[in-house]
Specification:
Largest sheet: 6 strands, antiparallel
CATH architecture: 3-Layer(aba) Sandwich
Shape: globular
Number of strands: 13
CATH topology: Beta-lactamase
């Protein structure tokens, strides 16, 4: 029966829409950089306890069982490579039930997927299949559903065919974003059709239907604007150059070599591994239970664990995913964006925490992945809430202190 025959249900959906308008619009924000409001968790831990016990106590202080922004679980993998100290813990409950979670439960890591996309693109350049300085149209032509001749029209001129691969990786293409620029229309569509299955074509159909091809933010190379559409184009490039689906290309080039046995491209390939899922929230909305998030595709679709993400970032910086050390240096090159006060490089962010430099990425549904290559420190966590009611950065700092980072 159509919902349009039920005015009260429509009112409920409208109210939910108001609450969720920021959901996808803020999907690119790393939780390290988003201080929460409402409560101040206790950061004190007994000094006579082991680091693992201290971490569990601290994590427990950050669980919020009720209210508008519950935090039902906290998953953590934190390692000090210099001392060998590892804390791998999970506290809290599933979300929809009171069943306790374990340390190796899985979650949607959202935009952390961009690190996988960037890695594969750079691998393709290493073997001579592409060059980051080339226009992506050199390899895709008009791009089919990408419609590169229409994807970027500024002041009556088409620039889509001039956008380079490097500009896509560093969010310097000027392309608009369906989550940030047309969030009301897109989010209402998700609410009205929460189980709709998306692929790259449907994502781009939305992009053009919303008129974003005629609303770029600047000419290619003339600024920084974070857009998941950049990574939809890059995902399509990977499929064209490898002859594989995007999930399969990432699996054969990253997940299998690294041993990420509990990671899979959610909604786009069959579930993989044995890890059970936690429920992740935006406010009171249980995204895991009620929303098909296949619309993220190349921008952020992987389900994973804190351990698997740690395996990935350690392998990346150990040189196991590239043939040459210079490729990793290229991935970390964010000089153009740094001139504009931005910290983004090629699918990876630079973070400064207490005078130390970390590299990694955040994901909307409460994920943060960090690595300090100088001190061999790994931080991989998920707090199951997109907008926690506290400042998560304080928890990050305390956990780093617990594992001996001074």
């Amino acid at each position: 029966m159509s919902i349009f025959k039920h005015p009260f249900r429509l009112i409920l959906i409208a109210v939910a829409a108001i609450a969720i308008l920021a959901l996808l619009a803020l999907g690119t924000v790393a939780w390290l950089l988003v201080p929460g409001k409402g409560i101040t968790p206790d950061l004190s831990v007994p000094e006579d306890r082991s680091p693992a016990e201290q971490a569990r106590i601290l994590m427990g202080h950050h669980l919020v069982d009720s209210g508008r922004t519950p935090v039902k679980s906290f998953l953590l993998y934190a390692e000090n490579g210099k001392t060998g100290l590892l804390v791998h813990e999970g506290v809290g409950t599933v979300g929809r039930s009171e069943d306790p979670v374990g340390r190796n439960w899985r979650f949607n890591c959202a935009s952390v997927t961009k690190m996988f996309i960037s890695t594969v693109v750079l691998q393709l350049e290493e073997v001579g299949l592409i060059s980051l300085d080339d226009p992506v149209s050199l390899y895709l032509g008009d791009g089919g559903y990408l419609r590169l001749g229409e994807i970027h029209q500024l002041d009556g001129m088409s620039h889509g065919e001039d956008i380079t691969i490097a500009q896509l990786l560093r969010h310097r293409s000027g392309l608009g974003d369906i989550f940030l620029d047309t969030q009301t229309r897109f989010n209402l569509g998700v609410l009205l059709h929460p189980h709709r299955q998306y692929d790259a074509r449907k994502i781009m159909d939305s992009y053009f239907r919303f008129g974003l091809g005629k609303k770029p933010h600047f000419a290619p190379g003339n600024g920084y604007y974070y857009s998941d559409i950049n990574y939809v184009v890059l995902g399509t490039l990977i499929e064209r150059m490898t002859g594989q689906s995007l999930p399969q290309a990432i699996r054969t080039r990253i997940l299998e070599p690294v041993g990420m046995d509990d990671t899979w491209f959610a909604f786009h390939e069959p579930p993989h591994g044995t890890a059970k899922p936690v429920d992740q929230y935006y406010g009171r909305i249980n995204m895991t239970r009620y929303i098909n998030t296949s619309y993220e595709w190349g921008g952020g679709s992987h389900a994973t664990t804190t351990k698997d993400l740690a395996l990935f970032i350690k392998a990346l910086f150990a040189g196991k995913l590239f043939r040459e050390a210079s490729t990793l240096r290229k991935m970390l090159d964010g000089a153009e964006n740094a001139q504009e006060g931005q910290s983004y490089a090629c699918g990876i962010n630079k973070y400064e925490v207490d005078g130390r430099t970390y590299w990694g990425h955040g994901g909307f549904y409460g994920t943060l992945l960090l690595y300090d290559p100088v001190n061999k420190v790994t931080f991989s966590a998920n707090i199951s809430q997109a907008m926690p009611p506290f400042d998560p950065e304080a928890a990050v700092r305390k956990i780093l202190e617990i594992i001996g980072v001074r």
